[in-house]
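Structure first, sequence second, as always.
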């Protein structure tokens, strides 16, 4: 774990990332894990039978077949977009933290924040793998089965039926691996800044970004749900 949070922007080594990998090599591992998880969930977990169970009450068989055909036609786009979306996510988090550092007059480069976020994202990748393994061992027949299989989030602990609809998205964000991600960010910031303001800094930069993203998703949920 110490390798993940060992951030020193003034230190230049050939192998200074997670598991001895450089930053972009670590990003490549994150992309591979995300693509592998997407492949397993698409090919093994979310089978046609599962879609028939999920959508059978709302749509007839012909409509479901049409949707599955459209999904199969554009499935390749998912594989292409995964690395792009992951890069944008990391770059956005690093940008939020870099702007916060500028406002506080901290002499920390954007590259250092980018490196920190890439390394901290490894814990999110571990979470994806574990969640996929749990789904593989579960009998997924409905959305409720998927929620119950989420052992690591507040949504899975409390149950979808016990959470108000407007709080479903925020509850999904509260999970073990997100907390660990925050811990790694805080530890990295404290080491880079040589100060004791890591928690407040991460909350005021990345935390604000998460809240805004949650509000945006809730807005979409309300708009399309009405």
């Amino acid at each position: 774990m110490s390798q993940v949070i060992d951030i020193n922007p003034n230190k230049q080594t050939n192998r200074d990332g997670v598991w001895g990998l450089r930053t972009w090599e670590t990003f490549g591992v994150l992309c591979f894990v995300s693509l592998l998880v997407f492949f397993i969930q698409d090919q093994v977990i979310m089978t046609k039978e599962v879609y028939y169970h999920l959508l059978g009450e709302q749509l007839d068989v012909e409509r479901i077949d049409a949707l599955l055909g459209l999904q199969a036609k554009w499935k390749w786009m998912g594989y292409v977009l995964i690395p792009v979306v992951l890069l944008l996510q990391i770059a956005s988090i690093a940008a939020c933290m870099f702007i916060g550092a500028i406002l506080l007059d901290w002499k920390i480069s954007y590259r250092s924040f980018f490196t920190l976020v890439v390394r901290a994202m490894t814990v999110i990748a571990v979470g994806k793998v574990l969640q996929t393994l749990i789904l593989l061992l579960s009998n997924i027949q409905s959305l409720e089965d998927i929620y119950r299989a989420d052992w690591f989030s507040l949504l899975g602990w409390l149950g979808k039926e016990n959470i108000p609809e407007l709080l479903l998205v925020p509850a999904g964000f509260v999970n073990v691996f997100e907390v660990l991600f925050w811990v790694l960010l805080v530890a990295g910031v404290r080491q880079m800044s040589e100060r004791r303001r890591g928690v407040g800094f991460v909350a005021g930069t990345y935390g604000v970004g998460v809240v805004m993203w949650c509000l945006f998703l809730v807005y979409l949920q309300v708009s399309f749900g009405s």
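Margin note: Residues 18-225 form one domain.
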